[in-house]
Amino acid sequence: MSEAPDRTVTSSNAATRPRVRYVTNLREVDALDRAERSDLLPVAARYPFRANDYYLGLIDWSDPEDPIRRLVVPSLDELQQWGSLDASREATYTVAPGVQHKYRRTVVMLCTEMCGAFCRYCFRKRLFMDEADHDSLDLDTGLAYIAAHPEVSNVLLSGGDPLLMSTRRLEDILSRLAAIRHVRVVRIGTKMPAFNPWRVLDDAALRHALRRYSRPGRRVYVMAHFDHPRELTADARAGVAALMEAGAVVVNQCPIVRGVNDNGDTLGELFQRLTWSGVQPYYLFQCRPTAGNASFVVPLVEGFRTFCRARRQTSGLGRRARYCMSHASGKIAVVGLDRDHLYLRYHQAADPADEFRFMVFRRDDTAHWVDQLVPVAEGLRAPERDAADGAR
Ligand code: SF4
């Protein structure tokens, strides 16, 4: 395996390096020719565009199929009528503005509606859209809800990207969560180590906050989001190392995306490079049937085969990842395939009665979501569902 080209456009020295510059207007992307820009403007009018010069600098502009380009530059396919803006019905589990409680032990807070760049396949693109109706986080109500629910031991800060908040605001949230005794894990879901590693490298106060609130017995996890091995530049790896040195546990979750990481070699290389950087591959998600995402989705059977090929290229550390659908009813892992069947199991379930439920479906090589599959047998229980779980 060759070393991934280090396409960083800036040096890591904050004193000599120009600031990362954000771009929200396709007309400012010089690498696109004039005709391309004007073709893509209607796409960006529907699903906003945002990137920065560092991340755009990772693109090989001579390759129209470049995976990093596909990740952030709009494409005409997004205008196909397909999918819905809330494919996992997050509204169902919203207990206060910006606060979701789906799984017993975990509450999600949508802290911000901004990201370092906008992934074109984003499942929460509704947050960035002008016409979409959504409420901003009601932090006080969310914290009061968590305090009143002692079963909640995990809080996921998400969005948008929580590292787009000021460090002061993030630290305020971390300190208020630290005051709730039963919250043992705070997860920060962020793509900033990929989009702009200097958000971490240049901010000593952020690292200090992590050091203060990530302690034995109460940990801050950073749920990083690297989709492709080329995102793991020297600067991105330094950003990850800085997070770990500050006491955060860093894991990775990403979707399988057509044209980005939909082959076993690319995904295997990503898993390998993550583990070499000390980052555990945690979830490989099935791309949700979100509006605009038709061309990004890989069918489940192909996705599972790609996942298996990728895992074969890694050590046991890389093999800890799970391939899951974030379905409205829970996280459903794809666990097996044969000539006639696809085997799924609930990894997390909104309804405790579903937890670990094992399901067998007729194999359908075109299906991309569990709702399209025809069950052969339902209600089987995986062996690890023990009496204690059942009694809950
Ligand atoms: S970083 Fe996450 S929330 Fe932000 S655009 Fe990408 S997928 Fe969406």
Structural commentary:
It contains twelve helices and 15 strands. With 392 residues, the protein is an alpha/beta fold. The chain folds into two domains: 90-328, Aldolase class I (TIM Barrel, Alpha-Beta Barrel); 330-392, no CATH class. A 13-stranded mixed beta sheet has the order 3-4-5-6-7-8-9-10-11-12-13-14-15. A hairpin with a 2-residue loop joins β3 and β4. The longest helix is centred in the N-terminal third of the chain and has 13 residues, at 34-46. The N and C termini lie far apart (48 Å). Iron/sulfur cluster (SF4) binds next to loops.
What features would you highlight for this structure?
alpha/beta, binds iron/sulfur cluster, 2 domains, 392 residues, disordered N terminus, 12 helices, 15 strands, two-stranded antiparallel ribbon, 13-stranded mixed beta sheet, disordered C terminus, TIM Barrel
Order of helices and strands: EHEHHEEEHEHEHHHEHEHEHEEEEEH
Uncertain ranges: 1-11, 382-392
> Would you identify the CATH H-level superfamily of the largest domain?
Aldolase class I
> What number of structural domains do the residues give?
2
